[in-house]
Specification:
Elements lengths: L8 H4 L9 E4 L10 E4 L6 H4 L7 E5 L9 H12 L4 E6 L8 H9 L4 E5 L4 H31 L8 H7 L8 E8 L2 H7 L5 H21 L6 E4 L2 E7 L2 H21 L5 E5 L9 H17 L6 E3 L5 H6 L4 H18 L8 H10 L4 H8 L3 H15 L6 H17 L1
Parallel strand pairs: 2-3, 3-4, 4-5, 9-10
Antiparallel strand pairs: 1-5, 6-8, 6-9, 7-8
Family: Belongs to the CdaR family.
InterPro entries: CdaR-like_regulators, CdaR_GGDEF, GGDEF_dom, PucR_C-HTH_dom, PucR_C-HTH_sf, PucR_dom
Protein name: Transcriptional regulator
Length: 411
Amino acid sequence: MSDAMSIIVKDIQKLESLKEMELVAGKIGLERNVEWIYVAECFEDPLEGIKWLQGGEIVFITGVGMKGDMSVLTKLIKGISEKNGSGLIVNIGPYIDDIPQEAINLANEIEFPLFTLPWKVKLVEISQEISNAIVLSRIEENSLNHFLSNILFGDGELEGETIEKAAYFGYNLDGECCICVIDIDGFEKFLKTKKLEDEISISKLKITFRKIVQDILEKYALKVPIIDKDDAVIFFSKCEENYMNRLDKALKEIKEVIKKRIDGISVSVGIGNSYKDLKMMKQSLNEAELAINSAKCQGLDDTITKYKDIGIYGLLFSIKNKKVLENYYLDVLGPITESDNTTKDISSIQLLETYLNENCNITVTAEKLFLHRNTLKYRIKKIEDLLNCDLHNFDHCINVKIALYINKILK
C-alpha cells in the first residue's frame, strides 16, 4: 500500500483476482489514486458511458459495444484520461482480441495505465476485490487520521500504548520525534488571483500538493505519518541525525518541485523541537507553526525555519495577551509613531530598524537608506530626544529592539 493508505493503481496489480492482468502501456501513471471501479459497458456507445466519470475510477471494458471498431479504444483512453480516470482494464476475448499499437502509443504518451485481462477472469470477481480493497484502505486511512488527530489536537490523555499503535500502522515513532509543517504561502490570496472558488478545484490543488510532499518524502526513504490541516501538510519526523539530513534535502526539493508544478505557489516550512514523549507532539506542532509565523513577521515566504532558531520571537509569541505587547510597544516607541504622521520620507521605525540591524554603524546605515551622514545623525538625535533614550546604551537598544520585534508581530 502507498503511504497515504489510499489505493493506487500499482496496488490493484497485487490483488489475487488480478494476478493474470498485464500492463501494456502507461507505466509512469501507476501512482494514480483509485477511488472506485467503473464498468463502461451499459451503453450502445461506450463513449457515452464515460460521461459520468467523477475522476479516480479504474474503468473496465469487454468491448461488447465497440462492434469491432478498434479506433473507439483510443477515443476511450483519451476520454477517460480527460475525466481524470485512473486507468483502463481491457478484457481480451471475443470482442477485443488484441490492443492496437495506436492505443498503446497514446497511453504511453499521456502516462495512462492500460491493462489487458484474460477473458476467463470474470468481472464480478475483480469488481468485488477492488471495491473491498478500496473500502478497507479508507477505513484504515480514517483510523490513522483519527489516531494522528488525537495526538496533535485531542484534549484528553493519549489512549494506551501510542508507540505500539503507530507501529501497527507501519510507523516507527520510538525515540525523539518532532513535527514538521509545510504551509502554502498566501493560499487565500492565490485562490483569489486564480479565481478558484469551487470546492473540486481547491480540493484537487490540495491533493496535488500533498502528493508532491508524499512522493518526495518516499524518494528519500522517509516513511512518516502525514495529516492534512487546512492548506498545510503536517507530519511526524524522527530526529536521528541521518534522518534529519535526508529530511533537509527532501524539504528543499519539495519547495522547488511545488514551485515548478503549481504555478504561483510557494511553501514555507516550520520544524518544532524534538521530544521523546509523543504527548509533547502538540507542543512541537505549536512550535513548528510559530517558526512559520516568525518568518512571516519578517515578510519572508518560501523559507525553512526551525523553532530553535527563531530567538526572541519564540518568547514574544508565547505571550498570549496581546494587550501586554501593545502597551510595551507604545511605552517604548509611541512618541515616534505619533511624530511620524508628518514625515514624508523614511519613517523613524524603518530608520531605527536599519540602524540597529547594522550595529549602530552610521556609515553603513546612511548608505543603506540613501541618506547623508549628517541627516542621519540629526534624525537619530531627534529620535533619542523623543524616546528619551541613548542609542549607545546597550539596555536602551535592547528595549527598542524588542519593541520593533513586537511591532512586526502586531502587524
